[in-house]
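Today's session is about reading a structure prediction critically. Students often jump straight to the picture, but the first step is always the sequence itself: look for stretches that repeat, for charged clusters, for runs of hydrophobic residues. Only then move on to the predicted structure, which in these notes is written as discrete structure tokens rather than atom positions. Here is the chain we will use throughout the hour.
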Amino acid sequence: MKYHDSIKQAELKMSMAVKQLQRWFLPVSPINYSVSYEYINKKNILLNTAIENKLATGKKLDDFFIEENYRQFILGQSKFRDELIDDLDDVVTHVEKNSQKSSQSINKLITTLDSNISDLQSADKEKIVVAVNSIRQASKAFKLHQQKFAEHISFTRKKTQALKVELKEVREEIYMDPLTGLYNRKAMSKHLDLWLTEDPSRQVAAIVVCVDQISEVNLQFGHLISDVLLSKIASKVSSYVDGSGLPIRSGGDEFLILLPDIDKESAREIASKITHGVEKLRFVSSKSGIRLPQMTLSTGVDTFNIAENASSILKKSRLLLPDLYKKNNTLSS
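Below is the predicted structure for this chain, in token form.
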């Protein structure tokens, strides 16, 4: 955020940003304040539209929604960054493939030369001997060149491997929820697009999971404890999802699991295992030794056509749990 405000203008906006947070019933944390300040400046159209659309539904803004939009519209996790990562990934893959092919081609050429030299040496003719010696020298020079080239390839591969690590870190920053380690809505949209490209008629099962007691734990023990519990529960939930499934943090206390090519009955069985697995967890505060409340889940299951977009699937999946709306829930739209 870069503004050219006078001190008086900046002070006025600071006051307006704090009052805006009060109207939203949000604490004046650094991230909340940044979003509020950006909102009252009315220059970030995408951010303001997302907030106004959320408010238009009659739901409250919460920390999850604010942080998600902070990362999306203020830190600049835009479509451009998304496409840039894909392009860099393609470049890395291309360089690795070409390096491998070049190395294989050179080795094949050297083997062929060596084999021909051996055959030519069996003929007792002066010109052929001279030619053989000439080829031998060329072969030695080529081997030396190949050795240097191989060293260059090795160096390039190390560089591309380092780049891959960096790309993985950036990709996690963009596509992963920082608290739970689950995927976020941006990753959900990307996977849906990929699945749609693979098979437009594909069916996907959706399991919506809501943690029942997080709001109460938050009020009684504070954000830190509730965040730790949410993280541990998310880890347990994701343990029931194999590599083809997609566990997503879709709201403050809500997860959504997408399972392509899974029927509704199988999805119900997975949902039941998740529920029982979480209910068996027991939590004790490491500082005070106080036993925390037993956590339970509300779940719903349905199937969708892969052609539906992320927003549509989220809205329909939430209808599986009508009680969420009665709580004036913390889910984001």
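Discussion point for the tutorial: The two ends are 25 Å apart (CA to CA).
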